Amino acid sequence: MRVLAVHSHPDDIEFVIAGTLFLLKERGCEIHYMNIANGCYGTAEYSKDEITRIRREESIAATEVLGATYHESICDDMAVFYTEESLRRMAAVVREVAPDIMFVASPQDYMEDHMNACRIALGGAFIRAMPNYETIPPRPAIETDVTVYHAMPHGLTDGLRNPIVPDFYVDVSSVIDKKAEMLACHRSQKDWLDRTQGMGSYIDTMKELNTKAGTLSGRFTYAEGWRRHLHLGYSRSELTPVEELLADLIAPGR
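Above: the chain's sequence. Below: its structure in token form.
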């Protein structure tokens, strides 16, 4: 199966999606990785052009740790808007990859870029089968089914502090060190996240979030939570590929 992970900024996938990606990679899935925004404002040290280059290189290094295919970003930070151009560019990637599974951001999160990235990814997936819809660059429509899953928001709550409860948790304990290695590729973010969001060591913060999810699962030391999107418009019937592929590593959420 082909898996396309789409989030907002470089390092977002590493925080809330990468553990499940490692597990699916181990079970034979082909993994694709895309940050919608290029990370151009995640710095207090570098110029915009410099940090954009640095964060692209960091993301490519992270995909190499995962063994995934890297896809280019389509906009600047804080320009992640649900526009015609963003949809055309996102739909082109979906058509190129033809994923069976998509992992996307939570529709509720603490910042607009994350929530808009969710909408753009969903829009690109919905558009994939429309033959008269022209993408940038042009890609032919595809009619394959795709199952979409939403990652947990950062902090595991919405912007009003309400807990987000997943459909199920995936045990990522066996790959937490690989996940940390992947996140560590984003070296430019260590001081920035501490300075602006009080995260301290960003790797420790990631592990703390996964520990909290693991505690909520009632079974696992480290976990990632997932909510499955309604299948209408994305697959001809209700499919559960992740639940089937990782059945031995799943605990119910709701």
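The domain at 2-252 is CATH 3.40.50.10320 (Rossmann fold).
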